[in-house]
Amino acid sequence: MMDTVLFYFFGIIAIASAILVIANRKVLYSAISLIICLCSVAFLYLILQSPFIAAVQVIVYAGAIMVVFLFVIMLLDPFSSEAVKDKKKFLAYIGVVLGILSLTFLYSALKSYDLARTPKNVSYGGGVGSLNELGHALFQEYLLPFEMTSVLILIAVIGVVVLAKRRASK
Amino acid sequence: MDLTLIHYLILSLLLFSIGAAGFIIKKNIIAMFLCVELMLNAVNLSFIAFASFLNQVDGQIIVFFVMVVAAVEAAVGLAITIVLYRNRNTLNADDADTMKG
User: Fold this and answer.
1) pTM of this prediction?
2) Which residues, in sequence order, are CB contacts of A7 under 8 Å at separation 6+?
């Protein structure tokens, strides 16, 4: 019962802040509402008995990634509205139409999903999210992808440094 | 009434649709990145919901990898944005329509 109340509470916060992300004209406010959205989704992860992923969501996503976003937003000063002048107004209507289309399409796909196939008697969160199991799966079954992500991050670091380096006198 | 998998999937669907619509509506490149993050987040939510309801840990591992790739994507994308702003003095995606310098 408590779960249901919390789900609706944080779900509504998540959707409202997601709408604010695309409704705000200033990017800084969009970024801050995205942080709110990410945090409320982290609460949903807690309800789903995944405390580790919830912690990672807050620390890495809402913390590190969004701080990088805020840094760049403040660095580039997109508050000057001429930086983003609306040239193609019709794209907004196309966007709304496509959003509604994807909503109906995905919803019908969801409807056609056979509910009988989902395990009903499983009380969710049977200790699945425990750090033990997660660590075992990550470092045994998924060891190779895990190592490859480190290579990916290394490549990204080198690429970012090369990209963002100021060219010497041009 | 109890929470079922469908509740979480519908929430994830709504978040994803909002993100997808915003990606098309927005002109500012940084705002478009924010919408991409929103979509990734929605997909993560459905992964976690499936992992929890099917009692399998694999969904959480995939979310872990998605977060890593999202961090990498944000870093590279923002570096490209900074270079674009330095060269063109714009953040409008419509102004970045030529390949050369």
Assistant:
1) 0.80
2) A44, A47, B3, B7, B8
